[in-house]
Amino acid sequence: MSVKYLVPLCLLTVLTACQQAEVPQGQYQQLTAENNEKPFTLQLEESRLSGFTGCNNAMGDYTIDKGELVVSQLASTMMACEPAAMQREQQFSQFLQNRPKVTIDGKILTLSKDDTVYQFSVR
């Protein structure tokens, strides 16, 4: 293979690797919850996501694609809670399924989409 083709191939490999950032595996807890709400939790293991979504527990598969969290087949338990907790949970579950951007800064995991931001810390 000539150098002429090797350089673009190397650049493509580096760019692809940067886009597929790895999220550290482990347990995360929401940094701030309002009005004495229970914080959301996330557990990331291999390609599985699980956690507490405000009222129920949710689980599904996930990948990171171009810096976005892609959650598929998100399922949850079906406990009933107060209407405010149920609404908060529904909003968070929909947020997780709308490809939020993922950033890592030390032990802080940030998920963001439009004006919505959730921050989590390693537990």
Describe this protein's structure:
It is a single chain. A hairpin with a 2-residue loop joins strand 7 (108-113) and strand 8 (116-122). An 8-stranded antiparallel β-sheet has the order 5-4-3-2-1-8-7-6, covered by helices on one side. The protein has helices at 3-19, 83-96, and strands at 26-30, 41-45, 48-52, 57-65, 68-76, 101-105, 108-113, 116-122. The chain is globular, with a radius of gyration of 17 Å. It has 2 helices and 8 strands, in the order H-E-E-E-E-E-H-E-E-E. The protein is an alpha+beta fold and 123 residues long.
- Return the structural class: alpha+beta
Distance between the termini: 48 Å
The largest beta-sheet arranges its strands as 5-4-3-2-1-8-7-6
CA-based gyration radius? 17 Å
Task: Summarize the structure in short.
By secondary structure, the chain is an alpha+beta fold. It is 25% helix and 41% strand.
Give a topology summary.
Blueprint: H1 3-19, E1 26-30, E2 41-45, E3 48-52, E4 57-65, E5 68-76, H2 83-96, E6 101-105, E7 108-113, E8 116-122
Antiparallel strand pairs: 1-2, 1-8, 2-3, 3-4, 4-5, 6-7, 7-8
